[in-house]
TrEMBL record:
Keyword Lyase applies: yes
Transmembrane segments annotated in the record for this chain: none
Protein name per UniProt: DSD1 family PLP-dependent enzyme
Organism: Roseomonas alba
Pfam family name, one: D-ser_dehydrat
Amino acid sequence: MLQAPPAEPGMREDEVDTPALLIDLDAFEHNLDTMAALLAPTGAKLRAHAKTHKSSVIAKLQMARGAVGQCVQKVGEAEQLAWGGIPDVLVTNQVVAPRKLARLAALAGICKVGLCTDDPAQVALAEQAAEAAGVRLPVLVEIDVGMGRAGVEHGPAAVALAERIAASKHLMFGGLQAYHGSAQHIRAPEARAAAIAEAVARSRRTVEQLKQRGLDCPIVGGAGTGTFRHEATSGVYTEIQAGSYAFMDVDYAKNDDAPPFRQSLFVLSQVMSRATPGVAVVDCGHKGVSVDSGMPGVWERPGLRYAGASDEHGKILIEDGTAPALGEKLRLAPGHCDPTVDRYDWYVGVRKGRVECLWPIAARGAMA
């Protein structure tokens, strides 16, 4: 069921119904501009990860600042972006269900769309879908650069898979997917840099071996908000797949050298109970904010700590400072932005205390 819009343009922030997903537009635009400026001298291009924002509106704002396209994790996300007018979408994931592959191939009629593979059986399935749809799909080989999740072994195994794709009449070899997700939140800068250095080395060796077999590698994609500067300046990566940079979250802020972006995403909550001394209860629990990467922060209220969540309640301890009043609105900074966004149908864009816009989160819940 589509959630009713929690606000209208022109109203004050403290009039917004809660819980609601807010974007501080000044901070958000700063983040988009900062990423564009940092990547400009490197030659690497941004292919922003829409699994974070799930919105063709935001995708278009990123592309207006130079992004070459978007990447997603699910076919449903690719559909929403393509239907929203995004011309270039990459599914940075393996797709094996024939029905999903047919949906993906159908999108090739309205945009450029590709996917990743790490197994010859996946290639065969993608080939069948492309042939049935009468299209030719770009397919990237995903290599394991240290994450230990998906990805074929770098080097000869990856080259063999690329040759299998290149030999197909219905597919084209699109390059390498080389994402090291677990490195994004390594707290110590030196350890994080070392992890990415190994990812770069594996990618470089694979690109060199592809060239020896006569295969160009148009894309080497990967990186994220925590490491993008390493990949962008490596001379190997051509596309940067950062997503959280647009919003930020509490977990990224814990890195010893936090990324140079501002917190722009918040969940607006309201104090609904003050019955227990030293405690304020807000109307935002597990259903309103993700706690998989830790509790949200109470924005610009250092004496308040979000200490625990149940389904519909958030428990805030009043440790110091001014206690919030019954009915007061508080901004919560999510611990993890991606799954928090997936709980809402609308972004409420605010600037200087006023609602400026509402944007639909079209790919919310697109798990298939």
